[in-house]
Amino acid sequence: MSKGEESIPDEEWERFLREAKAGAKGAPEEPSARARMVTRRLREETGRPEPWRSHQPARRQGGKGWYVIGLLVAVVLLVVALDPGRVVGWFGGGGGGGENAPLAVESERPDQPPSAEAAAQPPTLEQPFRGSPAAQWGDGTAGIGLPEARATGWMSKGQVVQALEKTRDFLAASSLDPGVLRGERPRKAIALINPHQQDVQDYLATSLRAPSRENDPLLLFSRFEKTKVRLVGDVVKTRGRITYREGKRGAVEVTTDVTYVYPVVRAAAGSDEVARTIVRREVVMSWDDPAKVVVEPGTFSFVSYKVDTTNGGCDTFTGYLTPEFNAERAASRPGDGPEVDPYDRSTSMDTRMREAGDAGCGTATRS
To answer: pTM for the whole thing?
Structure first.
């Protein structure tokens, strides 16, 4: 929230929503996820996708002994209020490691990928982001740009401020929260998803209980199996932005597009080989007018969701990101997908996934 803008108390927010709902002329609609499903192949779409959940073909494995890049599509996520700065502690290790001053937050899509000049420098425990563009990115939510708030749709300027702040909290809960990163159940986050999107609630329950290709929690959360890997230090680097517009039925439709970089080592004591898992997520959420849509106060509904993972596993559906280290990469089979720079944010997620086509596993050009 910018300085000088007054936050609306939770009681007033909830009272407003109850009164709006009570004053509606007709019964509000229950959000139907099923009614918004789209075809599985993005390349077959002719217009803006409006799914609850849709899947791209299986994730892809790298063919050059580098990092695995996974391409999947879906639509759902979570919200929870967290400290919007550093991700606090996943067992010891070094900090951010970037020697250069951080870049200004991203305000629009860049027109070219970041330089690859430092790519030959390997990461270390002391400098886990060395040799990566992420060395100049922000720590945690500090790397995510927020737009200026204005009255939009059914919301006043103050309510839009709250929606944007809760959206950023949601990003922290899904992709930065230390407990979720260790594989814990994101209970607080799930509680903030509109419970009347029953398809979403069912999907969440199934994916966390019995993960599979069709029910993969990695479409929603960044999770590592703590018995196999651990984060290096207490920083996850991020770069991205949040935008919004008026959506259907006067809703405030918020789009987030953020890349997260996770440095990890094996969980075994004394491990010092650092690998990086890179996840780019684009999620579109709808802050609905309770006079028109059945929604609980302070929760939002999902419109669409896309995720692109590098070195997170290829055709492995354990419910956890499974980064490869040198030994696994040396034994990996060549992939048949395209080469992709995981740090390149000049290409939209829709374009990246259409370019992937039906190939199984692609190759990341750097880590």
So the answer is: 0.76
